[in-house]
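Sanity check. The docking grid for magnesium ion depends on where the pocket ends up, so I'm generating a full predicted complex first rather than guessing from homology. Inputs follow.
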Amino acid sequence: MIQLTHLQRLEAESIHIFREVAAECEKPVLLYSIGKDSAVLLHLAQKAFYPSRPPFPLLHVDTTWKFREMIEFRDRRAGELGLELLVHINEDGVNAGVNPFESGSRLHTDVMKTQGLKQALDRYGFDAAFGGARRDEEKSRAKERVFSLRSKEHRWDPKTQRPEPWRLYNTRKRPGESFRVFPLSNWTEADVWDYIAKENIPIPSLYFAKTRPVVRRDGALIMRDDERMALRPGEEVEHLSVRFRTLGCYPLTGAIESTAATLPDIIAEMRASKVSEREGRIIDHDGSASMEQKKQEGYF
Amino acid sequence: MAYAFAEQDFAPGAPAPLVASHASEKALLRFITCGSVDDGKSTLIGRMLLDARAIAEDQIAALDRDSKKFGTQNGALDFALLVDGLAAEREQGITIDVAYRYFRTDKRAFIVADTPGHEQYTRNMATGASTADLAILLIDARKGILPQTRRHAFIVSMLGVRDVALAINKMDLVDYSEARFNEIVAAFHDMARELNFRTVAPLPISALNGDNIAALSERTPWFLGEALLPLLENIETACAQDHEEPFRFPVQWVNRPDLDFRGFSGWVAAGAIRVGDEIVSLPSGKASRVHRIVTQDGDLDAALAGQSVTLTLADEIDASRGDVLVAAEKRPQVASQARARLLWTAETDMHPGASYIVKLGARTANATVADIHHLIDIHTFAPAAARPIRLNEIALATVRFDRPMIIGDYCDNRDLGGFILIDRITNETVAFGLIDRRPAQENEEASEGERAAARPQRPRSRLRPPARLASALFSGFCVGAGAVALGASPATGLLLGFADALLRPFARSVYADHRLNRANAAAPSEERLDSGGGI
Ligand SMILES: Nc1nc2c(ncn2[C@@H]2O[C@H](COP(=O)(O)OP(=O)(O)OP(=O)(O)O)[C@@H](O)[C@H]2O)c(=O)[nH]1
Ligand SMILES: [Mg+2]
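Predicted complex below; grid placement will be based on this.
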């Protein structure tokens, strides 16, 4: 008997989830955050509806602090694929001068990401938002359903999640409520990389090692991506061969020293790694329940 | 998380394999932990993840911090905190919702769902169990079998899990007593007689100390079986997707990019399909042939169960979301009502006559629970008098649909046999439904009939010889009758039925011997006949 490979199964399951949303929700959107998980998500969305185009736009909630390369990559990909790309910036936050250096990572993330996301979803009236989050990323994520119901206020209530047996998703909701839908729920970081390699999926070159200008700050290597990052007394810019394991706001994303410049190198390095993927994300270290709390407040 | 596992996958300097599955590797195993509150399920998973080196260093550091803050082990590592990821869970030291974790050894990849033992969260346990191949059922060695142990055993069996690792935990608190272990295992076999498990592998463990988890423990020299992790690596479970089954393809989404293309997108729920194969669209009954099997990577010649594809047909027949394309020669039932087991998951009681929304495959309809035949008494597994179903109760009921539904027995196909009921006002999922198409007992009052119906699954494996013969004859009869119904001549039907009746027990006994041998090695001597054998 022919067996499907592990990746084939994961792919089929994700495609099934995409189609359920397209069939049952009125106005879906794909939250495109430019990283590797988003790249896989976008790739699967195309497969799910081929030869049609994915019947939803992409939405990027831009905190204005992403790596410059991410923004270039985003615009290029959307253009190549001919997909509608919506970019939302929380102007209230910008006007109030919120930024990761002075406001702190927590406030910055809350205002520019969480509040920004809620503004965008409300503004366009999306009732389902695909996200690239995986259950293996974080312990509260490990608890979340594939279809995660959010209140009018976008809150997640982890104590009253609907049962979700088999492949049956209850997609009913009241006006104003919405879903966050996670087609990559059952993928691991290793699966994502294996799939990127197998399918030749374009990803930003920030994932590959290169000599980059970095500053050592609070135990992390922060790439100085533009002039907005002022050096503190005693700090200096070093030029090191580094890469990123996840991508986010550049002041909040730690680089790792590495020479892995090809996909097989990255995969080998990841498999041998003794620390988790989110180690480099400064926003995750604000206390052990922080991700859950952010999610309850409406973070995707 | 799951990257710390497999340095051994790579010879130094060798190019990394680009695909996750290795030729020698066994198929992914999905398993759950279940059992009563505080029996040590989360601790066991945490321990296994650690032993399988699936926990990164920064996560171990976080565990150490958390253990000091929330731990139940006086500041020593509390492995449960690796999986109890919600703030409310950590505060209370209990599991509320199912956690999915992923890990891999060099032999196999695993998805594990750690489920809550608390009765209030039974629906979350059932969510985890619905996709499991195997269940680790934990029992606290001090407490033995508790009502919730029974409930979980029943639900696991009802949801189609055939293989159970029976982990008698906290052996450290009973001095690793062989007698206590044997006593509980015997009681379990007694209780599980009707639950139709194919394998029951008993193990004495301590989740806290790691005994018999990654490797056999010196503290239980009397235990002759395999440790838990090797057992999980080696076990062959029932294959969930059988490509020999007739083709079933619920249409999920009609793919219409332009006027020239009309495809039916969906997930192959059973069987296989080739270009040129004849199919019928149900419920309309319109027939056509598969013209193309479309994917973005190019057209396929064939598609198998478990694949997501888009089919185009040779004729312009009408089919829309919720219809099912099926093998023309072997059609499932199209029905306006079905008998089903319901697991009630809502706080509000269910009353006969109440109307709900049903979702089955890609099809949604209105449903009425017309009749509750009986409830299952969770203490005896016997049928109990019908009355409104309450939270976490299980009942056998007849459900009526307001449009034709394409259904199958849950045991044969979860996509055509499993459904959910949704409350149309609160939108809550109020029940899991499992269609039961075993021949209906004409007289629902008859006690023997009720007992048979109360069994979670068709009586396949755990029957004594006379019953086994009867069952073989009966399933043979079904095969024969089915063939006749599908247009074979009565003689062919008879022949098929006969052959089936003859061969099925034979095939089973060969398989059972194999199981029994394995189980014997694992079980203390007085358990030999019952543990895992009995097919
Ligand atoms: N002595 C001893 N204690 C254990 C063992 N396994 C678990 N425990 C303790 O038993 C308590 C309950 O363990 P959990 O793992 O949270 O139990 P659980 O089955 O997951 O509980 P729920 O998910 O709430 O149903 C904790 O204090 C554990 O440390 C064991 O093998 N020996
Ligand atoms: Mg637990």
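Relevant for the grid: The radius of gyration of chain A is 19 Å.
Also worth noting: Residues B 41-42, 80, 84, 95, 114 surround magnesium ion (ligand 2) (CB under 6 Å).
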